[in-house]
Write a structure and sequence with these properties.
76% of the residues lie in helices and 0% in strands. The chain is an all-alpha fold. The mean pLDDT is 88.
Amino acid sequence: MAWWHAILLGIVEGLSEFLPISSTGHLTVVEKLLGYPIDDAGITAFTAIIQVGAILAAVLYFLKDIVRLAVAWFKGLFSKEARSNPDYRLGWGVIVGSIPIAIVGLALQKIIEGGLRNLWVVAAALILWSVVLWFADRASVQSAPRGTPRGEESMTLMDALILGLWQCVALIPGVSRSGATISGGLFRGIDRVTATRWSFFLGIPALLAAGGLQAVKASKSVSETVGWGATAIGTVVAFVVAYASIAWLLRFVAHNRFTAFVIYRVLAGLAVVGLLVTNVVTAR
């Protein structure tokens, strides 16, 4: 892979990983436009590995929160008094919410890396999930108790588990991991900022595990098709760009609906359809 391709893909990953627009979908489209076989093991591994750069940006950005939850959870294992701390419950929430995607991801790994790596799937998911995100955004206040969205302090283990199940839908390229998790949170009556923060918290273990697994499993394929130098460049660029996008997204959702992302997803999906029907790119 050329170094400037790695930089471009790193930028795409960093910008799209945490926005509800699907980083895997965008990477798949751009990789195809650059002439790479999107179902190749090395390209699939590259896509997963550079996501680690973006997720490490989330780790750094939320480091204080992560440490706070981890300390409270650890203390709660040995102290009954410490279990009354809401952070103890939230720590368990991250663990419980991360289980579904680990199970489903491993069980359907061959399908995810094979048949679903198709631009028709990406286009359909971009457009169809826009409807879900739009409806979740509009229904969020009405679904909350007494019309008041819930904050992080009200999160339960059931909330975390359900968000984890919603995250599994994002294994379909084009859906968006953050978009799926945020939609699930809004349907549960959770406010936008909390739903967005939890898309980060649940994404950290999922993407670190996926990237690490691919780095080990497909190391030979990466060496032969992409190269570890290009992979390192893409990962570093994704880290830098993602850190900036996290800060922007949290400020944005505090004051705005997700309408702009819904419109963008539909336009992006239609653009992919246009590329396919005009034979500019092939589906696989």
